[in-house]
Amino acid sequence: MAERLAGRFRNRGESYEDLRQVAALGLVKAVDRYDPDRGHAFESYAVPTVTGEIKRHFRDHMWTLHVPRRVQELRNRVRVAGQELSQTVSGRGPTVAEIAERADLSEQDVRAGLEALESFTALSLDAELPGGEDGYSLGDALGAPDPALDTVVDREAVKERLAALPERERAILYMRFFDDMTQSRIAEQLGISQMHVSRLITRCCLKVREQVLGDEPAPE
């Protein structure tokens, strides 16, 4: 009986030998807990006990990541409903609405169950992506924090202060930090000394920095 029940769960990612061991453990528990004084046949008590032990094994040990029990149950209901519907529709897979009606679930729950169907195991970040270049892995496709985001915040913070500077100072800062010109070239272009350019850049930067910092909220 235990082996027959274990056979129902073949081809679900667990070896048949391990399933037999789990079923045997469930059978031992059924023997320990069975009370013949209740008047029920042993098999009617043992079958749900063994089946529950196998399902518990899948729930607790077969998921690569911890998934809430409710999502696991949704996955099972969606899987069963999809299998039943696949025998009644031909040439296509069942729709979300059809599965929802069959399993008595909302379409949102069905989508969660469908996602869980694909999440029983996890891919390694080194797994090669199909259709990609040789050696192109899943890890290569993952995004990373954009270091330029902080620059965007800084630019927005100084924009109004830069606009309020005198025209010559704005031109000097633009040539230095946007055109990447040296101080000597800026001085030559404006007809002033390099030392004067250096002092103007330092003064403007300090002024803008003080204005921005002065507008920041005080720490709580």
Number of helices: 11
Going by helix content, strand content and strand pairing, the class is: mainly alpha
What general outline do the C-alpha atoms trace?
A: rod-shaped
Low-confidence stretches: none
Q: How does the major sheet shape up?
A: none
Mean pLDDT: 83
Q: Can you describe what's shown?
A:
There is one protein chain. The chain has 220 residues and is an all-alpha fold. Helices cover 65% and strands 0% of the residues. The protein has eleven helices and no strands. It has helices spanning 2-7, 16-33, 42-61, 69-86, 96-103, 107-117, 138-141, 148-163, 167-177, 183-190, 194-215.
Topology readout:
Layout: H1 2-7, H2 16-33, H3 42-61, H4 69-86, H5 96-103, H6 107-117, H7 138-141, H8 148-163, H9 167-177, H10 183-190, H11 194-215
Helix pairs in contact: 2-3, 4-5, 4-6, 5-6, 8-11, 10-11
Nutshell version of this structure?
This protein is an all-alpha fold and 220 residues long.
Brief descriptors of the model:
rod-shaped, 11 helices, mainly alpha, 220 residues, 65% helix
